[in-house]
Amino acid sequence: MTTIGLVRHGITEWNLLGIAQGSSDIALNETGRQQAVALAERLALESWDIIVSSDLARAKETAQIISDRLNLPISFLDPRLREMNGGKIEGTTEEERLEKWGQNWRALDLGMESSEEVAARASKFLEEILQSHKGKRVLIVSHGGLIGITLKSLLPERFTKTHMGNTSITILENLENRWDCTLYNCTKHLPVSSQTN
């Protein structure tokens, strides 16, 4: 059995302000770093073989904090693990989007990557991980949108909608090419006020 731990990065200032980040390279804020430390402490009680990460700063820094605590180097950074590209909406709040493009802005062509495109690149990445690290326990540090879309793509009957908390961990297990989710969006390592389940 191959185990995949899907980790969303720690919080950023743009998260707090409700600004769409997408592929913009935004760093963690201090709270985000503390969240990553708390997650790293939790993961240190478990056994992991490999860490891989999105190459965007907020994921990379989260992965590095985990890597330092687990004494396990980041194997590689991969742009396929980046958040959904937001096109013209990156750097804007919902209020600004409504003002600029109106109520139906989601229906406009604003250069955003589609969910199907995100699912395709994430699925291809996971297939490669299954081939190259079969039977291992792999931590993947990525982004809320990508993780949610991946879950909906792999397990559509279980996941019709998703919400991923900052530094949440979701566990996927693959046995004989069948996926199962044994832990979803868990943030029990965070202070009670920050937990999402």
Summarize the structure.
This protein has 197 residues and is an alpha/beta fold. It has helices at 13-17, 30-43, 57-70, 94-101, 115-132, 144-154, and strands spanning 2-8, 50-53, 74-77, 137-142, 169-175, 178-186. The mean pLDDT is 95.
Tell me, rounded to a whole number, the average pLDDT: 95
Strand order of the largest sheet: 3-2-4-1-5-6
Shape: globular
Strand content: 15-25%
Distance between the termini: 26 Å
Provide the gyration radius in Å.
16 Å
Helix and strand content put the structural class at: alpha/beta
Order of helices and strands: EHHEHEHHEHEE
Give the secondary structure arrangement, pairings included.
Layout: E1 2-8, H1 13-17, H2 30-43, E2 50-53, H3 57-70, E3 74-77, H4 94-101, H5 115-132, E4 137-142, H6 144-154, E5 169-175, E6 178-186
Parallel strand pairs: 1-4, 2-3, 2-4
Antiparallel strand pairs: 1-5, 5-6
Helix pairs in contact: 2-3, 5-6
What does this structure look like?
The chain has 197 residues and is an alpha/beta fold. Helices cover 36% and strands 19% of the residues. A six-stranded mixed sheet has the order 3-2-4-1-5-6, with helices on both faces. Helix 2 packs parallel to helix 3 (57-70). The chain is globular.
Characteristic terms for this protein:
197 residues; globular; 36% helix; 6-stranded mixed β-sheet; 6 strands; 6 helices
